[in-house]
Amino acid sequence: SLHAGQRRTRRDLTQMVTEAMRHPAVSALSHPKGRILNHRPENALDLDEVFAVALETGVAVEVNGLPDRLDLSAVHVREALAAGVPLVLNSDAHSAVGLRNVELAVATARRGGAPRSAVRNCLPLVSLLERAGRRPA
What are residue 70's phi and psi, to 5 degrees? Predict the structure, then answer.
């Protein structure tokens, strides 16, 4: 996830993010647009290019349920789905209470039309482990 340089140019920001997505340890891009509702607008990241790299690398894109973020938005979820990009849903919890935020991630994904099959963390455990290159026990 992007935690610095949010105000970079579209080109620089997109290049930085897509280069990171190509690293073999990366499996998901968290809160890609970086918005914080009523505080910080979304960044200039080129989602079309990010989605193309996600398809190339197998990196999923997060739908974040933190009430202050809700990033990706339902509109961006639809765009990701149309591009064939897999999603992951996340609570962005910083405490046990914050785990409830996953409900907002689910609601946002549903508003964007995401079927369960498009959400990586809705896959059976065996599929997730195989995807990570681990053998199921």
Answer: 45, 55
In the prediction, which pLDDT does 40 show?
A: 86
User: If we measure between CA atoms, which residue out of 31, 21, 15, 30 comes closest to residue 53?
Assistant: 21
Q: Are 85 and 61 in contact (CB under 8 A)?
A: yes
pTM: 0.90
pLDDT per residue as tens digits for the range 88-119? 999 999 999 999 999 999 999 999 999 999 99
- CA dihedral (43, 119, 51, 111) positive or negative: negative
Locus of tokens 């280069």: 19
Dist CA 50 CA 111 (whole Å): 21
